Amino acid sequence: MSGKIRMLIILMAVLVVGIFCSPASAQTIEELYRKAAQEKTINFYGTLAQVNAEKILPVFEKRYPGVKLNHVDITSDSLVARATAEARGGKTIGDIFQAPLETAIQMNDQKLLLEVTLPEYSAYPAIMKGPYWVASNLQFIVVAWNTNLLKKADEPKWIDDLADAKYKGSLVAEPRDFEFLMGIAKHKFKNDEKAIALLRAIAANGVEFHKGHSQLTELLTGGQAKLCVTCFAHQFPGRMKKGAPVNFLLSEGIGSMNATAIFKDAPHPNAALLFARWAASEEGQKVYAEGGRAPAHPKVKPIDPIRPERLYPLGVDDIKEYPKYEKIWKDVFKLR
């Protein structure tokens, strides 16, 4: 057999394999659903709060009858420990993993996640996706205040305003929120020195620290605090609708991400792909919004206006530098 004929045969074989062994991500939703219906189950390992899960997950089950979601609801650390222990025991039980991006990175470091690019991921900016994940929803750290204690004329317009001496003795924050520093350093100023200088100026105004964002919100609502440096945006609209004297900054804020990923060697691979594609689609993201989460999809808005106009999202590269910025944060505020 001549070399040319041999090469032609090889090329034809490659073409045939390409036709009949197309990647799962190239399948249509209908094709995936037919296969997922045969698998029947999706083991969903996620930190999605029960109050949100009860509104979101049943919509998927109704949309795709015959595919049941089994929600394993435990903390991020417990999810990693459980999945790692199962893998070491020689079995994979989880299909979908959905948790803070930092936790997804830990899972990937353990080689537990599947590298796959799905069609729906193309709508997301580069910082909100990677080889093994895509953002499912966001959480926003914003400046907030009590409207009874802070005059309208004194309300901050930008994060930089917190350095103004008129706020001396008025500030509260969460002691673990070094993401605030990371957001302004990596994405607002794109300069560590400028960000640290601003942080020092804010620290000079005296910041009182309280653990727990819910506590910070309650302190503002109850008039026991005037202005919060690191509050969660989603905790305010409901209170404001009920007449609470609070408001928050929408001009800019820091965004942390939850990520959706698929387990490597998932026992229900087609069902896992189906859920991942639905969760990343505009349709799925609207369900996340209606279920009380802030969708990551650029075209889907949260139900309440909580997404800052200028958003500084923390991606994989940022998270890898957590130790550096945590140390600076603690040093500036003299935290242990």
Key attributes of the depicted protein:
336 residues; alpha/beta; D-Maltodextrin-Binding Protein, domain 2; twelve-stranded mixed beta sheet; 13 helices; 41% helix; globular
* CATH secondary-structure class of the largest domain: Alpha Beta
Shape: globular
Order of helices and strands: HHEHEHEHEEEHHEHEHEEHHEEHH
Unreliable stretches, pLDDT < 50, 5 or more residues? 7-22
Enumerate how many helices there are, as a single number: 13
- Number of β-strand runs: 12
Mean pLDDT: 92
Query: What number of structural domains do the residues give?
Result: 2
CATH superfamily of the largest domain: Periplasmic binding protein-like II
Largest sheet: 12 strands, mixed
Q: Structural class from helices and strands?
A: alpha/beta
Could you tell me the CATH topology label of the largest domain. D-Maltodextrin-Binding Protein, domain 2
Q: Give the percentage of residues in beta strands.
A: 15-25%
- Architecture of the largest domain in CATH? 3-Layer(aba) Sandwich
Helix content: 40-55%
Notes on the protein architecture:
There is one protein chain. The protein is of the alpha/beta class and 336 residues long. The chain has 2 domains: 155 residues, Periplasmic binding protein-like II (D-Maltodextrin-Binding Protein, domain 2, 3-Layer(aba) Sandwich); 141 residues, 3-Layer(aba) Sandwich (D-Maltodextrin-Binding Protein, domain 2). The chain is built from 13 helices and 12 strands. Strands 1, 2, 3, 4, 5, 6, 7, 8, 9, 10, 11 and 12 form a 12-stranded mixed β-sheet that branches. The longest helix is centred in the first third of the chain and has 18 residues. The protein is globular.
